[in-house]
Specification:
TIM Barrel, alpha/beta, 8 strands
Length: 225
Protein backbone atom coordinates (compact mmCIF):
# COMPACT_ATOMS: atom_id res chain seq x y z
CA UNK A 1 0.00 0.00 0.00
CA UNK A 2 1.26 3.46 -0.86
CA UNK A 3 1.32 6.39 1.53
CA UNK A 4 -1.55 8.03 -0.33
CA UNK A 5 -3.62 4.83 -0.20
CA UNK A 6 -2.99 4.58 3.54
CA UNK A 7 -4.07 8.18 3.97
CA UNK A 8 -7.28 7.52 2.04
CA UNK A 9 -8.04 4.53 4.25
CA UNK A 10 -7.42 6.47 7.45
CA UNK A 11 -9.60 9.33 6.26
CA UNK A 12 -12.39 6.81 5.67
CA UNK A 13 -11.94 5.47 9.20
CA UNK A 14 -11.96 9.01 10.59
CA UNK A 15 -15.20 9.72 8.73
CA UNK A 16 -16.79 6.56 10.17
CA UNK A 17 -15.71 7.40 13.73
CA UNK A 18 -16.96 10.97 13.33
CA UNK A 19 -20.32 9.77 12.07
CA UNK A 20 -20.64 7.21 14.84
CA UNK A 21 -20.06 9.85 17.50
CA UNK A 22 -21.93 12.69 15.80
CA UNK A 23 -18.84 14.82 15.29
CA UNK A 24 -17.96 17.34 12.62
CA UNK A 25 -15.06 16.31 10.38
CA UNK A 26 -13.85 19.91 10.37
CA UNK A 27 -13.02 19.59 14.06
CA UNK A 28 -10.59 16.73 13.47
CA UNK A 29 -7.01 17.21 12.32
CA UNK A 30 -4.92 14.33 11.03
CA UNK A 31 -1.21 14.74 11.75
CA UNK A 32 1.18 12.48 9.84
CA UNK A 33 4.02 11.49 12.16
CA UNK A 34 7.06 11.32 9.90
CA UNK A 35 9.64 10.46 12.57
CA UNK A 36 12.29 7.99 11.37
CA UNK A 37 11.02 8.52 7.82
CA UNK A 38 12.90 10.27 5.03
CA UNK A 39 12.04 13.74 3.78
CA UNK A 40 10.89 12.03 0.54
CA UNK A 41 8.24 10.11 2.45
CA UNK A 42 7.17 13.24 4.29
CA UNK A 43 6.84 14.99 0.92
CA UNK A 44 4.64 12.15 -0.31
CA UNK A 45 2.24 12.77 2.57
CA UNK A 46 2.12 16.50 1.78
CA UNK A 47 1.54 15.73 -1.90
CA UNK A 48 -1.39 13.54 -0.83
CA UNK A 49 -2.87 16.55 0.92
CA UNK A 50 -1.65 15.96 4.46
CA UNK A 51 0.21 19.13 5.30
CA UNK A 52 0.35 18.64 9.07
CA UNK A 53 3.47 16.66 9.94
CA UNK A 54 4.61 15.58 13.40
CA UNK A 55 8.14 14.93 14.64
CA UNK A 56 9.21 13.92 18.12
CA UNK A 57 12.85 15.00 17.83
CA UNK A 58 14.10 18.54 17.24
CA UNK A 59 17.02 17.45 15.07
CA UNK A 60 14.80 15.51 12.71
CA UNK A 61 12.30 18.33 12.50
CA UNK A 62 14.92 20.95 11.68
CA UNK A 63 16.59 18.61 9.15
CA UNK A 64 13.36 18.02 7.26
CA UNK A 65 11.97 21.51 7.66
CA UNK A 66 13.76 23.02 4.63
CA UNK A 67 13.22 19.89 2.53
CA UNK A 68 9.45 19.56 2.74
CA UNK A 69 7.67 22.50 1.21
CA UNK A 70 4.22 23.44 2.41
CA UNK A 71 4.33 21.39 5.60
CA UNK A 72 3.03 22.58 8.97
CA UNK A 73 5.27 21.06 11.61
CA UNK A 74 4.09 19.88 15.01
CA UNK A 75 6.60 19.03 17.72
CA UNK A 76 5.04 16.07 19.52
CA UNK A 77 7.94 14.65 21.54
CA UNK A 78 9.87 15.62 24.65
CA UNK A 79 11.50 19.01 24.18
CA UNK A 80 14.76 19.87 25.91
CA UNK A 81 14.90 23.46 27.06
CA UNK A 82 18.23 24.11 25.31
CA UNK A 83 16.69 23.09 21.96
CA UNK A 84 13.76 25.48 22.01
CA UNK A 85 15.76 28.07 20.07
CA UNK A 86 15.99 25.74 17.07
CA UNK A 87 12.26 25.33 16.59
CA UNK A 88 10.98 28.85 17.17
CA UNK A 89 9.29 30.02 13.98
CA UNK A 90 9.37 26.52 12.49
CA UNK A 91 6.47 24.84 14.25
CA UNK A 92 2.74 25.53 14.24
CA UNK A 93 2.34 23.84 17.60
CA UNK A 94 4.25 22.27 20.49
CA UNK A 95 2.22 19.35 21.86
CA UNK A 96 4.58 18.47 24.68
CA UNK A 97 4.68 21.30 27.19
CA UNK A 98 5.24 19.42 30.44
CA UNK A 99 7.17 21.62 32.86
CA UNK A 100 7.65 25.17 34.01
CA UNK A 101 11.24 25.61 32.79
CA UNK A 102 10.07 24.72 29.28
CA UNK A 103 7.14 27.15 29.49
CA UNK A 104 9.53 29.95 30.48
CA UNK A 105 11.97 29.19 27.68
CA UNK A 106 9.24 28.92 25.03
CA UNK A 107 7.83 32.21 26.26
CA UNK A 108 11.22 33.94 26.24
CA UNK A 109 12.21 32.76 22.77
CA UNK A 110 8.79 33.48 21.31
CA UNK A 111 8.79 37.04 22.64
CA UNK A 112 12.31 37.56 21.27
CA UNK A 113 11.05 36.46 17.86
CA UNK A 114 7.88 38.53 18.16
CA UNK A 115 5.59 35.53 17.88
CA UNK A 116 3.21 33.52 20.03
CA UNK A 117 3.71 29.75 20.09
CA UNK A 118 0.54 27.62 20.24
CA UNK A 119 1.06 24.86 22.77
CA UNK A 120 -0.68 21.90 24.30
CA UNK A 121 0.02 20.68 27.81
CA UNK A 122 1.03 17.04 27.93
CA UNK A 123 -0.67 15.03 30.65
CA UNK A 124 0.48 11.62 31.80
CA UNK A 125 -3.08 10.46 32.39
CA UNK A 126 -2.22 6.84 33.00
CA UNK A 127 0.67 7.73 35.34
CA UNK A 128 3.20 5.63 33.43
CA UNK A 129 6.71 6.03 34.79
CA UNK A 130 8.26 5.82 31.33
CA UNK A 131 6.21 8.69 29.94
CA UNK A 132 6.59 12.44 30.12
CA UNK A 133 3.74 14.73 31.04
CA UNK A 134 2.25 16.39 34.07
CA UNK A 135 0.50 14.27 36.64
CA UNK A 136 -3.24 14.90 36.64
CA UNK A 137 -3.34 16.79 39.99
CA UNK A 138 -0.66 19.23 38.75
CA UNK A 139 -2.44 20.31 35.59
CA UNK A 140 -4.75 23.05 36.85
CA UNK A 141 -2.15 25.08 38.71
CA UNK A 142 0.41 24.68 35.93
CA UNK A 143 -2.00 25.92 33.29
CA UNK A 144 -3.22 28.83 35.41
CA UNK A 145 0.37 30.03 35.70
CA UNK A 146 1.48 29.25 32.15
CA UNK A 147 -1.56 31.11 30.82
CA UNK A 148 -0.01 34.35 32.07
CA UNK A 149 3.01 33.99 29.75
CA UNK A 150 2.44 36.15 26.65
CA UNK A 151 4.74 34.17 24.32
CA UNK A 152 2.75 30.97 24.48
CA UNK A 153 -0.90 30.29 23.85
CA UNK A 154 -2.30 27.23 25.57
CA UNK A 155 -4.90 25.65 23.32
CA UNK A 156 -5.54 22.28 24.89
CA UNK A 157 -4.14 19.03 26.18
CA UNK A 158 -2.19 16.10 24.79
CA UNK A 159 -1.69 12.58 26.03
CA UNK A 160 -0.05 9.36 24.90
CA UNK A 161 -2.10 6.39 25.98
CA UNK A 162 -0.35 3.19 27.09
CA UNK A 163 0.15 0.72 24.28
CA UNK A 164 -2.46 -2.05 24.48
CA UNK A 165 -3.62 -4.76 22.08
CA UNK A 166 -7.25 -3.81 22.45
CA UNK A 167 -7.74 -0.03 22.20
CA UNK A 168 -10.98 -0.28 24.19
CA UNK A 169 -8.76 -0.67 27.24
CA UNK A 170 -7.50 2.90 26.90
CA UNK A 171 -10.90 4.50 26.33
CA UNK A 172 -10.93 5.64 30.01
CA UNK A 173 -7.61 7.47 29.44
CA UNK A 174 -9.10 9.49 26.59
CA UNK A 175 -12.31 10.10 28.50
CA UNK A 176 -10.32 11.39 31.45
CA UNK A 177 -8.27 13.80 29.33
CA UNK A 178 -11.48 15.23 27.89
CA UNK A 179 -12.98 15.64 31.37
CA UNK A 180 -9.84 17.37 32.64
CA UNK A 181 -10.03 19.72 29.67
CA UNK A 182 -13.69 20.59 30.37
CA UNK A 183 -12.78 21.42 33.94
CA UNK A 184 -10.15 23.96 32.82
CA UNK A 185 -12.23 25.98 30.41
CA UNK A 186 -12.93 28.85 32.77
CA UNK A 187 -9.25 29.65 33.41
CA UNK A 188 -8.62 33.13 31.98
CA UNK A 189 -6.39 33.20 28.90
CA UNK A 190 -6.79 29.50 28.20
CA UNK A 191 -8.54 28.06 25.17
CA UNK A 192 -9.23 24.41 25.81
CA UNK A 193 -10.15 23.67 22.22
CA UNK A 194 -7.73 20.94 21.26
CA UNK A 195 -7.33 17.39 22.49
CA UNK A 196 -4.29 15.75 20.88
CA UNK A 197 -4.88 12.05 21.48
CA UNK A 198 -4.94 8.89 19.41
CA UNK A 199 -2.23 7.11 17.43
CA UNK A 200 -2.25 4.34 14.80
CA UNK A 201 -3.66 1.65 17.05
CA UNK A 202 -6.16 3.65 19.08
CA UNK A 203 -7.28 6.68 17.08
CA UNK A 204 -10.81 5.42 16.42
CA UNK A 205 -11.51 5.19 20.15
CA UNK A 206 -9.79 8.55 20.76
CA UNK A 207 -12.03 10.19 18.15
CA UNK A 208 -15.13 8.76 19.79
CA UNK A 209 -13.92 10.35 23.02
CA UNK A 210 -13.49 13.79 21.49
CA UNK A 211 -9.97 13.91 20.05
CA UNK A 212 -9.39 16.90 17.75
CA UNK A 213 -5.87 15.94 16.67
CA UNK A 214 -4.75 12.42 15.95
CA UNK A 215 -1.06 11.67 15.47
CA UNK A 216 -0.57 8.81 13.03
CA UNK A 217 2.79 7.34 12.04
CA UNK A 218 2.81 3.62 11.33
CA UNK A 219 -0.62 3.45 9.70
CA UNK A 220 0.51 6.04 7.12
CA UNK A 221 4.20 5.35 6.56
CA UNK A 222 4.52 1.71 7.59
CA UNK A 223 6.56 0.41 10.49
CA UNK A 224 9.68 2.24 11.64
CA UNK A 225 13.03 0.48 11.44
C1 LIG B 1 5.55 8.04 17.29
C2 LIG B 1 4.48 8.86 17.88
C3 LIG B 1 3.17 8.83 17.35
C4 LIG B 1 2.74 7.94 16.21
O1 LIG B 1 2.74 6.59 16.59
P1 LIG B 1 2.14 5.44 15.64
O2 LIG B 1 1.78 4.37 16.59
O3 LIG B 1 3.23 5.05 14.72
O4 LIG B 1 0.96 6.00 14.94
C5 LIG B 1 2.23 9.65 17.94
N1 LIG B 1 2.54 10.47 18.97
C6 LIG B 1 3.78 10.54 19.48
C7 LIG B 1 4.06 11.46 20.61
C8 LIG B 1 4.79 9.74 18.96
O5 LIG B 1 6.04 9.82 19.47
Amino acid sequence: MSISQNITLIKEQIARSAEKSGRNLNDIKLIAVSKNMTADKAREAVAAGLVDLGENRVQELTDKHPLVEGAHWHLIGHLQTNKVKYIVGKVVMVHSLDRWSLALELDRRAREAGIVIPTLVQVNVAGEETKFGLAVPEVREFISEAATLPGISIQGLMTIAPYVENPEEVRPVFKQLRNISYGLREIPGVRMEQLSMGMSNDFAVALEEGSTMIRIGTAIFGSRK
